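Quick one, probably user error.
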């Protein structure tokens, strides 16, 4: 017999108000960005800089309060250039949500703004990443938190296997992060 628990988790909204790339080589009107939280790849949002007319639409994401405090969630912004057949990768920016949350009170013109380098790896994603410009992000955290019912845990043998796979992927991700920090200490 399966029993469901009514566990509620605390969430907070983050609004990405403006994104502006600067000093991007060969920048033309075909540049766009895809945004998502690395723990929730299914919720992707796209900004077409060509159609934005200098301003971006406000995009909202919901993040668990526990993930903000632990620093395990990142905002991923992938810059791409639209081409006729295959879009090309310009670079990407990864920002820890915890860093955004801790710097939410340092404002520029009344809004928190952060500037991060756009990094691109050479040789098909291998090799040391190089800076391809900077990306200014203006954001805002919601003042209030809200509760949302947690997903029911998967039970049984299948649930156990999925749990082990999730734990294995988390360990692999941690190892990759540590290796990346060792190989690129000055970034």
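Nope, works fine. Designed sequence:
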């Amino acid at each position: 017999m399966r029993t469901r628990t009514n566990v509620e988790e605390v969430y907070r909204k983050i609004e990405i108000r403006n994104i502006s790339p600067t000093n991007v080589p060969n920048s033309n009107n075909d540049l766009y960005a895809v945004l998502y939280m690395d723990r929730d790849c299914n919720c992707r949002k796209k900004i077409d800089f060509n159609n934005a007319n200098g301003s971006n639409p406000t995009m909202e994401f919901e993040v668990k309060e526990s993930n903000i405090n632990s620093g395990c969630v990142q905002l991923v912004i992938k810059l791409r250039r639209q081409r006729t057949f295959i879009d090309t990768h310009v670079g990407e920016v990864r920002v820890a949500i915890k860093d955004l949350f801790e710097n939410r009170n340092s404002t520029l013109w009344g809004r928190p703004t952060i500037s991060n380098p756009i990094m691109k790896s050479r040789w098909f994603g291998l090799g040391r990443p190089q800076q391809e410009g900077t990306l200014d992000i203006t954001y805002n955290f919601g003042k209030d938190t809200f509760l949302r019912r947690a997903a029911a845990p998967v039970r049984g043998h299948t649930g156990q296997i999925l749990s082990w796979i999730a734990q294995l992927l988390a360990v692999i991700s941690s190892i990759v992060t540590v290796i990346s920090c060792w190989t690129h200490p000055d970034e």
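Strands lie at 8-22, 31-37, 40-48, 59-64, 74-81, 88-96, 107-108, 111-120, 130-149.
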